[in-house]
Structure formats: structure tokens, C-alpha cells
Design goal:
Elements: H1 2-5, H2 9-13, E1 19-21, E2 27-29, E3 34-35, H3 42-52, H4 56-60, E4 66-72, H5 78-97, E5 106-113, H6 119-126, H7 133-142, E6 149-155, E7 160-166, H8 169-174, E8 182-185, H9 199-209, E9 219-222, H10 227-235, E10 238-241, E11 253-257, E12 285-289, H11 293-304, E13 308-313, E14 327-329, H12 340-360, E15 370-371, E16 375-378, H13 382-395, E17 403-405, E18 408-411, E19 415-417, H14 419-426, E20 432-436, E21 439-444, E22 452-456, E23 461-464, E24 467-469, H15 475-478, E25 487-497, E26 507-509, E27 513-514, E28 521-525, E29 529-530, H16 539-547, E30 565-575, E31 582-587, H17 589-595, E32 613-621, H18 627-643, H19 651-657, H20 661-668
Parallel strand pairs: 4-5, 4-8, 5-7, 8-9, 12-13, 12-24, 13-20, 16-26, 24-32
Antiparallel strand pairs: 1-2, 2-3, 6-7, 9-11, 10-11, 14-19, 15-19, 16-18, 17-18, 21-22, 22-23, 25-28, 25-29, 25-30, 26-27, 27-28, 31-32
Helix pairs in contact: 3-5, 6-7, 11-14, 11-18, 12-18
Length: 678
């Protein structure tokens, strides 16, 4: 996301220099000469201003589906924690009256902060509220590194997720997709922080608040009663009033989006039509085809959102490429400062670390599922060394995330994962039912409620409301009419006897990767064989892997002999032309091409029509060799799209991973066959 990721690292870290503590121990911004919360009772003020005047408790009592809040100014996190506590109380009351199936309420909180506090500063500030101690500790355990961009935190057992955006509010709001059901306008007073309270803020609020579902209009609340804010909100379509302020303050502002300028334009007049998520389906059942990393993560995320998931695979759980004994949990990041690729993988990497810890526990030396031993990405050539140096110069990541060493880049929190163990852990959820069965075809029924018929090798047929295809390159065999330009790349691993191997405390990555040994065996690989469907082990590919050992250092030369080989494994990666995954709904190829044929004449003149998408059909494929990192975030994106939650990623990243991107590009490049426009 160029507008956010281009912000200098200094702009993210200056909060460390712009904070002081009052004699009473309260945090005060030296930049705005204003305290972060009320000197009398900040927790009560948050409840009064934001929770009560957005009528959250009353709305949550009967709300169905996701409830999305956007906050301008995360500060110390007090507003978020107070909302979390209120949400807990509301959920407990509902659970006493409804079954888990009836209560599908989920809180998704998005907060924007240009000057984020460090974990240490948050700890000190929130220590003033011992009644929030448990929630504070839970938040701090996932609090991200201070890097610009989106950070996704989640607590599915409480049905809460938080998207923290470290960026200027105006840049961030442009990247949000909505919906929004409540606005918290915080972030220091208009007199002291005029850069935030601008016409641009109110117009972005209008953009995100338009076209609500009936009964789910966006509300707004703010501590300020400034006339310029009232006029700005009214101009954006909010009907506002002036309740009494908190703690002796005369007034504040609150209101509800209530456009008074005639009928709203459809959403596809406001943004690219293919970015508009399909309307959530009424059914709470989903069928996921494919039980590798992508399928298992998809099933788990949907199950945690309250769906009943049937997970189907002909071979079993993690039997294809996801069945490798060890995989490196790390990312290779692009050097270009505008690279969406890097923005996606940085966000995915943070979430993947949290996800694997949640499923497999601490990655200590006794853990057979994963070990947080660190990953060393070696600068194995002058070109690679230059690329790494350029990346560090542009991005300036904190050393706790990526550490610069003489031999390359070191990821201290990373390590190796046993993908099959991770997949087995992911499917252990009461809402997931696994079924080993061979699906032979997927056919449209023409019915709105159950648009898909699944046909099995056994002869059984069943209908489905929502289907997710997560079968990697084999998706093309099921979806013969879909526009899926994926490639199948063969990879062979080589297993080595580790008896006489050099000491290896970290995962090593160069042209091959190798993890520290388990059960006396090293896992080395994998080869990269295009247009090769051979499933048999080959000596020539073992030799290719052995030849790469020299990149790990001279001490590895003695291991580069065939008498050290004790086995191997062949798997097949699924990659895309731009090496980003494909996740989301599929376009109905020919109607879509016809609707957007104008793009072939002028790619900037996007027809303002609804995008023809196939109802109830989604994919999550194309993870290549990076599925350990990319699959958790893609599963969250998928769940956002299916449930109607506000997206946990920016519009830029969402557009970069939607499957329809390749059809749009090829229409613009005039590469789509003419008969597709008929």
C-alpha cells in the first residue's frame, strides 16, 4: 500500500520522543500538549462518550453478524479495551438467552494511529486501570512492531479482532473498505490537532458510511463540540445533536448517518466494482475443498466466525505439498519501497507467528510441531546482498523483526513448522467436520439458496450454499471455466543423515532452505521444476539440492555426498504470475469480460456497473512455497468477504490478491480472446 508504506519509519517511531508523564502518572502528548485521556476518569469518559452515545449495548443486544467500529486515534488503547469489556458483558448476556448458533455477533475494531506508542509506554499508561489488567495483557501479547501499515490482531474465542493501522488518518481511510457501524472520533482536540479534523476526514467518513444495510446505519460520537466538527459531520450526511459532555464539559457531538441529498449512488460508482464484496449469504454452512494449509486455515477461520464447515479432501489432511516434514516460516521481501508484495507479506508474517503459537504453543526445542529458532536469509551472491541492503535502507525495520548481520538478514522470531501438525491442529474445532472423499465435479444448480451441486466419485450428490476451493493447482480441474492463470511447479526435497552435520541453530535459506534436524534427519530443498509432473524421486534433483549446500558455508561441503541421502519427497507448488495468492470470489468470466470490455480501450475508464461474480463460490490458492506465512492472512480475508466484515487489509492489498485481478489486467492488455466478449 504505497501511501501508507511510503511513510518514513521515523514518522512511526516519533511517539517515543513525543510523550511525557504528568505528576499523577498520566501520559501527555508533548506534540499536542494534551493528555491521552481524562484527568478525572478516562475509562468512564470512554464509556460515556463512545459506548453510550453510539448506543453500542442496545445495538449489540439484537445485532446479527459482524459489528465494525472505526476509531481515529488509538492512543493508549483505552477506548478499544473499554469497548472490549463492554462487548464481553453484552455477549455474556446474549449467551444466556441464545444458543451459540443464534448469536453470531463479532466485533471488528479498526483503529488508526499516526504516532503509535511502544509496548512499554502502553504498559505504563494502562497500568492506571487495574480493572482492565487481563485485557491489557492479552492485547500486549499481540501488540505489533512499530512499522507503518496494517496489523491484524485477533481473539476468536471472544469473537473480537483488531486492525491497527499505523499511518496518517487521511491516508488510512482511503484504504478502508467498510462497512462501518460506529465511528469513534478521537485523536486530540481540533484546536490542537487541526491536521486531522479536515474536510477530507468527513468526506472519507461519508464514503465509508454510505449504502448501509437497513437498520445498520453508521453512528458517530466524539468528545468535541466544536462547530467546525458539527458542520463537517452534517456535510458528510450525519444527523448530529449535542448531548451534555463528560465531567463538567458542556457539550459533545453524537449522531447517525442520514443522507439528505436524495438516493445514494450504488457502491460501484465509488470504487472499482470488483472490489465490492458479495452480499453475505443467509446460510451459516460452508464447504471447503482441499485440506492443505490454505484449506485448513480457511476452515478454522470460518469455524471461529460461527460457520459449520465441512472440510473435504480425497487424500486426507495435509497429504500434498503441505505434508512436507518441515517448512521455513519466513518471508523474502522486495526491495522496492512501493511493493505491495512486501506490504502483504509483512502483515501476513506477523499474523502467521501469532497463529502458529496459538495452534502449536511456544516454539521451544521440545516442540515437534514448530521451533522459533530464527531464520537466516543468507546473502548468497553480490546481487542478493545488494537487494537486502536496499530493502533495509528503504524500510528500516526494527531489529526485533529483522536483524541485519554480516551474512544476511536474520528473522529472530521465525523458525520452522511441521505443516501437517499445524493442519491437524487447525481442524480441531467443534464447527469443523472433516470428510475424506473424492469430489469429481462442481455444478451450478441455478438456485439462489444452494447454487452448487457437489458430485463425488462414490456417486453421492449434495447441494451447497457456499463453496471454497483450496486445492492449489488442481482448482483448474474443478473450475474449468474460471480464469485462473496458475502454474504447477514441482519441488523435490532431500533428506540427509544429520549424524555428522555441523551445528545448526537456525533455519538457513539461500537457493535452498534447510531446518535444524529432527529425529536425526535434515530436510533440504526444494528444487524448482517448471512444466514437470513427475512424482518419482530423481537422483539429478537430489544432486541439485546437494550443490546448494555450499551456499551455507564451507563446513557443509562434507555433507554434499550421496551417501548422506536417506530419502526425499516430491510435492507441487501452485504459483501465480505475480507470486501473490489468489483469494476471494470468482468472476463469471464471459459476462465479466463483456461488462468491462471498455478497459481494453482505456484502462482508466472503468464502467460503472455491477461486477458479474459467481454466487457462493470462492478460492484460496496460489500460495507457492510461502503458504506457512500467507495462508492465515488469506483465510481472514476470505472470512471477511464471506461474512461482510470490514477488511483486515487495505484496499490496495485486497485488490492485489483477488482472483479477478488477472482477468481485469488481461482485458486491459487485450489478451482476452475475442469470443469472451460475445
Amino acid at each position: 500500500m504505497s501511501e501508507i508504506s511510503n511513510a518514513s519509519e521515523a514518522s512511526v517511531n516519533t511517539a517515543n520522543l513525543a510523550l511525557k508523564w504528568s505528576e499523577a502518572g498520566l501520559p501527555v502528548s508533548t506534540q499536542f500538549n494534551d493528555p491521552y485521556f481524562s484527568l478525572k476518569n478516562g475509562l468512564a469518559e470512554t464509556d460515556y462518550v463512545f459506548i453510550q452515545h453510539n448506543q453500542l449495548r442496545e445495538r449489540w443486544a439484537t445485532w446479527q453478524g459482524p459489528f465494525c467500529v472505526i476509531e481515529t486515534g488509538f492512543g493508549t488503547g483505552l477506548n478499544f479495551l473499554a469497548t472490549w469489556r463492554a462487548f464481553q458483558q453484552s455477549n455474556r448476556q446474549r449467551n444466556q438467552q441464545e444458543s451459540a448458533e443464534e448469536n453470531d455477533l463479532w466485533l471488528h475494531f479498526t483503529s488508526i494511529e499516526k504516532y503509535p506508542l511502544s509496548k512499554e509506554q502502553l504498559t505504563q499508561a494502562l497500568a492506571l486501570w487495574p480493572e482492565l489488567a487481563d485485557l491489557t495483557q492479552t492485547l500486549l501479547e499481540q501488540y505489533p512492531h512499530l512499522t507503518a501499515g496494517f496489523h491484524h490482531l485477533r481473539w476468536p474465542e471472544q469473537r473480537i479482532s483488531l486492525t491497527l493501522i499505523f499511518a496518517d488518518v487521511h491516508d488510512a481511510l482511503k484504504e478502508l473498505t467498510g462497512p462501518v457501524h460506529a465511528w469513534y472520533l478521537d485523536g486530540f482536540s481540533p484546536a490542537k490537532n487541526p491536521e486531522m479534523w479536515t474536510d477530507e476526514l468527513y468526506q472519507q467518513m461519508r464514503h465509508l458510511s454510505r449504502n448501509p444495510q437497513p437498520g445498520k446505519e453508521a453512528s458517530v460520537a466524539t468528545f468535541t463540540a466544536a462547530s467546525q466538527v458539527r458542520r463537517g459531520l452534517q456535510g458528510a450526511g450525519f444527523k448530529v445533536h449535542n448531548p451534555e459532555g463528560f465531567g463538567g464539559k458542556r457539550h459533545m457531538l453524537a449522531g447517525v448517518y442520514h443522507a439528505q441529498c436524495g438516493p445514494e449512488q450504488p457502491p460501484y460508482f465509488q470504487q472499482e466494482p470488483w472490489l465490492i464484496a458479495p452480499n453475505p449469504r443467509g446460510s451459516r454452512e460452508v464447504t471447503v475443498i482441499g485440506a492443505g494449509l490454505a484449506g485448513c486455515h480457511s476452515a478454522r477461520s470460518l469455524a471461529e466466525a460461527g460457520f459449520k464447515v465441512t472440510l473435504i479432501d480425497a487424500l486426507g489432511i495435509a497429504q500434498c505439498a503441505s505434508g512436507n516434514p518441515q517448512g521455513g516460516l519466513y518471508v523474502k521481501l522486495a526491495a522496492d519501497d512501493k511493493a505491495t508484495h512486501t506490504d502483504f507479506y509483512l502483515e501476513a508474517y506477523e499474523l502467521a507467528l501469532c497463529s502458529v503459537k496459538a495452534q502449536l504453543g511456544d516454539g521451544d526445542e521440545q516442540n515437534l510441531g514448530w521451533q522459533s529458532c530464527g531464520v537466516m536469509q543468507l546473502a548468497s551472491s553480490e546481487k542478493e546482498a545488494a537487494r537486502q541492503a536496499q530493502f533495509i535502507a528503504i524500510r528500516q525495520p526494527p531489529s526485533a523483526l529483522i536483524e541485519v548481520r554480516d551474512s544476511g538478514l536474520f528473522y529472530p522470531q521465525a523458525g520452522w513448522v511441521a505443516p501437517a501438525r499445524l493442519c491437524e491442529a487447525l481442524v480441531q474445532h467443534p464447527n469443523i467436520r472433516f470428510e475424506q472423499a473424492e469430489l469429481t465435479s462442481l455444478n451450478p444448480t441455478g438456485r439462489d439458496d444452494t447454487p452448487w451441486q457437489l458430485c463425488f466419485a462414490s456417486g453421492e450428490q449434495r447441494s451447497a450454499s457456499t463453496v471454497v476451493i483450496a486445492t492449489a493447482w488442481q482448482a483448474k480441474e474443478l473450475l474449468t471455466d474460471a480464469y485462473l492463470p496458475v502454474k504447477n511447479i514441482r519441488g523435490q526435497l532431500t533428506y540427509l543423515d544429520a549424524t555428522s552435520a555441523p551445528a545448526m541453530p537456525h533455519v538457513l535459506c539461500a537457493n535452498s532452505y534447510m531446518a535444524p534436524p529432527i529425529a536425526g534427519q535434515l530436510c533440504l530443498g526444494a528444487t524448482y521444476n517448471l512444466n514437470d509432473s513427475n512424482t518419482e524421486l530423481r537422483d539429478s534433483d537430489h544432486q541439485t539440492n546437494l550443490d546448494h549446500l555450499k551456499e551455507f558455508g564451507d563446513e557443509w561441503q562434507l555433507m554434499a555426498t550421496h551417501n548422506k541421502i536417506v530419502g526425499g519427497r516430491v510435492g507441487f507448488r501452485c504459483t501465480t504470475p505475480d507470486y501473490l495468492p489468489m483469494v476471494g470470489p470468482l468472476a463469471d468470466t464471459r459476462p465479466f469480460a463483456k461488462a468491462f470490455k471498455q478497459l481494453s480501450k482505456n484502462s482508466k475508464q472503468i464502467p460503472q456497473v455491477e461486477a458479474p461474480l459467481i454466487p457462493g463460490l470462492f478460492v484460496n490458492i496460489g500460495h507457492g512455497s510461502r503458504g506457512l506465512v500467507s495462508a492465515p492472512l488469506c483465510a481472514e480475508i476470505l472470512t471477511d468477504l464471506i461474512t461482510g466484515r470490514s477488511s483486515c487489509v487495505s484496499r490496495t492489498i485486497l485488490e492485489a490478491v483477488l482472483p479477478v485481478r488477472f482477468l481485469v489486467r488481461d482485458i486491459a492488455r487485450r489478451k482476452v480472446p475475442n469470443d469472451h466478449y460475445d
